[in-house]
Amino acid sequence: MRRDGVADAGPQEDAGVYAANPREHAMLALWRELDEDAQREIQHAAQEKKRLSTLEDQLQELQAAVASLIRSP
Predict the structure, then answer these.
(1) Residue 72: per-residue pLDDT
(2) Taking the domains of the chain in order of start, what are their residue ranges?
(3) Among 10, 11, 17, 39, which has the highest number of CB atoms less than 10 A from its own CB?
(4) What CA–CA distance (Å, rounded) separates 47 from 53?
(5) Cα 53 from chain centre
């Protein structure tokens, strides 16, 4: 950990495993500038977005299954 309280990059990040492109690097830089509360809010919003995306995918699968049941004799 550096003096300013920011953790140094780990070996995976140095190898480009976590931030393989410039957009991800920029996002990580912005993330590290935020306080813990702001990071938590963003993490919660991202988790909620992922949850809703998964639910939408499941709904589409169910719609397709119901449609196929309606079409079959």
Answers:
(1) 80
(2) 1-33, 36-73
(3) 39
(4) 10
(5) 11
**Is the pLDDT score of 8 beyond 90?**
no
Taken in order 29, 34, 37, 38, the sign of the CA dihedral is negative
> 41-67 burial by CB neighbour count: b if 16+ within 10 A, else e?
eeeeeeeeeeeeeeeeeeeeeeeeeee
Q: What is the pTM of this model?
A: 0.62
Our CA angle for 62, 66, 67, nearest 5°, is 115
Angle, CA 50 vertex, CA 46 and CA 22 arms, to 5° = 60
Tokens 């998964």 found at:
54
Mean pLDDT computed over every residue of the chain: 85
